[in-house]
Specification:
The complex is a heterodimer of chains A (396) and B (90). Chain A folds into two domains: 118 residues, Oxidized Rhodanese, domain 1 (3-Layer(aba) Sandwich), CATH 3.40.250; 225 residues, Rossmann fold (3-Layer(aba) Sandwich), CATH 3.40.50.720. Chain A has 15 helices and 13 strands. In chain A, a hairpin with a 2-residue loop joins strand 10 and strand 11. The relative contact order of chain A is 0.09. Chain B has one domain: Beta-grasp domain (Ubiquitin-like (UB roll)), CATH 3.10.20.30. The longest helix of chain B has 11 residues. The chains are: A alpha/beta (396), B alpha+beta (90). At the A-B interface, strand 10 and strand 13 of A face strand 3, strand 4 and strand 5 of B.
């Protein structure tokens, strides 16, 4: 250390109070005791990423010293909080302390001896799970978004999403969820790829005509992202399999084309307490909402009964603009990621409608029906009718 | 006159219009005015006396089931939205 460095350190020591690891440990243990709010402590690890990855103090936030000025106000917005900084040995944290003081933080403390002494004293530390080098590259644009970041990306990789149908809505939703690194994607679909699907169902292609959609979806997704495990369910969702199939998933994306399945899924998802991201399309218009059991309305609150066949759009060849399910399906994917990460305001209790011709989005408020036969106070989702297939009579 | 916005599936019964005007001081009157001009709509919206359970009616973005149903008052600047369930996903 040269003279100038020593001088900087001397000044910093005068300015920034220091706590030993045992003092920090004690303060952390006491912070949840009743008392003034300013007892609350934020631990900030200012080391480099590779040092953090080898282990850090539990509940610490990581702001490398090089990014301190840029990121600390996002990580610790409240400048009156007690901020305890630590590095490996107590030098970098001391200098970082002077920076935070300059930035207006009023209670800055540097931990003397750093993480080395903390660990050597036998205090607890955790070793974070980290992304592989390839994953860090693949998801780099997610890692740059503070609301996702490495921990969010790991959460996505641990998540399991079920798509009901690999069709118009399921195709774009599954494709982007796979790109985003959702670790397990289940696809239930008993149909095979037909030429008339290809105008909108982008998971499939001309060569796959006649192949099961779930298999075709798997091929496309695996080629896009090897991190994703695709689970295919080549069967139709019915009373006998719905509980078993949805049990393993965190979020369900509903892209079915018929009412019975939507009611069946609604009731089963209420019983299993799984959120359903609901979308539907017709010609130039789409609808979207999130059914989060017992936090917002369910499908039966919104539509207590299915319409009669002549009023059931979407059953027969009602037609749809090919790009429309792309828009609605991607909004479903977006809502799914919000639910998985616990960020933003999911579309719970709100029905979003999109009119492609008008170029208009609008929103309707939805309410939980206290008398709802499924999710109401006296609701019994386990023994409700799921209705005969209202599509049995084709629409002319 | 209140504005009535029709979901796509209902438009064929109203001469293809997406939006029509209708007269009345409450929802029942507005709908009756609508049926007088477009009789086919009645079958689709209200085949019986009460409102169908497969169609949602909103006055100014609020579900009338949580207002006063058919008695919900409708002003001349209000918008009534008629929205039947849709299932299409493929």
């Amino acid at each position: 250390m040269g003279d100038a460095s020593r001088e900087i350190m001397r000044q910093a020591r005068k300015q920034v109070p220091e706590w030993s690891p045992s003092q920090v440990n004690e303060a952390l243990a006491n912070q949840h005791e009743p008392g003034p709010a300013d007892q609350e402590i934020v631990l900030v690890d200012v080391r480099e990423k590779h040092e953090w990855n080898e282990g850090h103090i539990p509940d610490a936030v990581h702001v490398p010293r090089g990014f301190l000025e840029l990121q600390i106000e996002e990580a610790v917005p409240d400048k009156s909080k007690t901020v305890v900084l630590y590095c490996a040995g107590g030098v970098r944290s001391l200098i970082a302390g002077t920076t935070l003081q300059q930035m207006g933080y009023r209670n800055v403390i540097s931990m003397s001896g750093g993480f080395g002494q903390w660990k050597g004293s036998g205090y607890p530390f955790v070793q974070p799970r980290t992304l592989s080098e390839a994953q860090s590259k693949r998801y780099s644009r997610h890692l740059l978004v503070p609301e996702v970041g490495e921990q969010g990306q790991l959460k996505l990789l641990d998540s399991r999403v079920l798509l009901i149908g690999a069709g118009g809505l399921g195709s774009p939703a599954a494709y982007y969820l796979a790109a985003a690194g959702v670790g397990a994607i289940g696809i239930i679909d008993a149909d095979v790829v037909d030429e008339s699907n290809l105008q909108r169902q982008i998971l499939h292609n001309t060569k796959r005509i006649g192949q099961y959609k779930a298999e075709s979806a798997r091929e496309t997704i695996e080629a896009l992202n090897p991190d994703v495990k695709v689970i295919t369910h080549i069967e139709r969702l019915d009373e006998t399999n719905v509980a078993r199939i949805i049990a393993d998933y965190d979020v369900i994306v509903d892209g079915t084309d018929n009412f019975p399945t939507r009611y069946l899924l609604n009731d089963a998802a209420l019983i299993a307490n799984k959120p359903v991201v609901h979308g539907s399309v017709f010609r130039f218009e789409g609808q979207l909402t999130v059914f989060k059991p017992y936090e917002g309305p369910c499908y039966r609150c919104l539509y207590p009964e299915p319409p009669p066949p002549e009023l059931a759009p979407g059953c027969a060849e009602a037609g749809v603009l090919g790009v429309l399910p792309g828009i609605i399906g991607l909004l479903q994917a977006t809502e799914t990621i919000k639910l998985l990460l616990g960020i933003g305001e999911p579309l719970v209790g709100r029905l979003m409608t999109y009119d492609a011709l008008a170029g208009e989005f609008s929103e309707l408020r939805l309410f939980r029906d206290p008398q709802c036969p499924a999710c109401g106070e006296h609701g019994h989702p386990e023994n409700l009718p799921t209705y005969a297939d209202v599509c049995a009579i084709p629409l002319n | 006159m209140a504005t009535v916005r029709l979901a796509p599936v209902l438009r064929a019964s109203a001469g293809g219009s997406k939006q029509v005007s209708a007269q009345g001081s409450n929802l029942a009157e507005v709908l009756n005015d609508l049926y007088a001009r477009f009789p086919a709509l009645k079958e689709q919206i209200q085949p019986e006396d009460s409102l169908s359970r497969f169609i949602n009616v909103y006055v100014n973005d609020q579900d009338v089931r949580y207002l006063q149903g058919l008695e919900t008052s409708v002003g001349s600047n209000d918008t009534v939205i008629l929205l039947p369930a849709m299932a299409g996903g493929r």
